[in-house]
Design a protein that fits this description.
This protein is mostly beta strands. It has one domain. Helix content is about 5%, strand content about 40%. It has two helices and 25 strands. A nine-stranded mixed sheet has the order 4-3-5-8-11-14-17-23-20, with helices on one face. It has an eight-stranded mixed sheet with strand order 1-25-22-19-16-13-10-7. An eight-stranded mixed sheet has the order 6-9-12-15-18-24-2-21, with no helix packed on it. It is globular, with a radius of gyration of 18 Å.
Length: about 270
């Protein structure tokens, strides 16, 4: 069974150099730093975006601030997996994107960010992993609010799964591809954000954009009135296992074609 509403959501509100980092990664003056990580008031620059987020995940709370436009280039086209920690990403007017794929295959690891607990091999390990609650908060401190997370390929830009939490306060999360890899399971649509298996998202500001804005399996909470048609805004389906949660208090959720809100209900 499915429900469809044609709409787009618009809701109004709501160089420091270190010789060596905690992870023994040298940050030399002749190396271009792409991000800085602040933990407990101490800021360390990084020339490698993977190292920056690896360091951030070792702390209970950390802020990663982009210092330059960054393209993630991994041989398997994977993005950045966040398994733990409470991380604030300040886009700072910069763009964080993936390299372009030469095929149309999509796996969860191919998202720019994949929020998911550590891998588990037993039921007890899995239940314990669900308590890690990895959190990512996206904001943009730049004056022109031009910061972006961009997925140039088909599939979601950000995946939020299994009790992890995404909060968007500013910036843009965008899937810029015209390739739609969605199938009957609705697990890999072209969208800005996908909630899967108990993921939670709170949209307070910024813009989510793609062929679909958000794909969500679970319960939709809308706190502020203000909906109007502008193609795909939110797509979702329910299951009876780990219901996802989407709360929207502000920002823009838009897409390039079709309905604005689709809710699939599955047993």
């Amino acid at each position: 069974m499915f429900m469809a509403l044609a709409l787009c959501l618009t809701l109004l509100p709501a160089p420091v150099w270190a010789e060596e980092t905690e992870n023994n990664i040298a940050a030399q003056a002749n190396t271009a730093n792409v991000a800085e990580v602040t933990i407990n008031g101490s800021t360390t620059p990084y020339a490698d975006i993977d190292a920056a987020f690896a360091a951030a995940q070792q702390a209970d709370s950390a802020t990663v601030k982009l210092l330059a436009d960054v393209t993630i280039r991994h041989e398997d086209y994977s993005g950045i997996k966040l398994e733990k920690g409470n991380i604030t990403l300040d886009l700072n007017g910069k763009t964080l994107s993936k390299s372009t794929r030469d095929d149309n295959v999509f796996y969860a690891r191919n998202a720019v960010f994949w929020l998911s607990p550590p891998e588990a091999t037993t039921k007890d390990e899995f239940l314990a992993a669900l308590q890690t609650h990895a959190r990512l908060t996206v904001q943009d401190s730049s004056a022109d609010r031009s910061g972006k997370i961009v997925q140039p390929n088909g599939g979601p830009a950000v995946i939020v799964a299994l009790n992890t939490i995404l909060t968007v306060n500013g910036g843009t999360i965008e899937n810029a591809s015209s390739v739609d890899l969605d199938d009957d399971s609705h697990l890999k649509p072209n969208c800005a954000v996908l909630l899967s298996g108990g993921g939670k998202a709170v949209i307070n500001g910024g813009t989510l954009r793609g062929m679909r804005g958000v794909a969500v399996t679970g319960y939709i909470t809308k706190e502020v009135e203000g909906l109007y048609k502008d193609t795909f805004g939110i797509e979702g389906y329910n299951n009876d296992t780990y219901g996802n949660e989407l709360t929207v208090t502000g920002g823009n959720i838009c897409a390039t074609s079709g309905e604005g809100l689709i809710v699939y209900e599955k047993a």
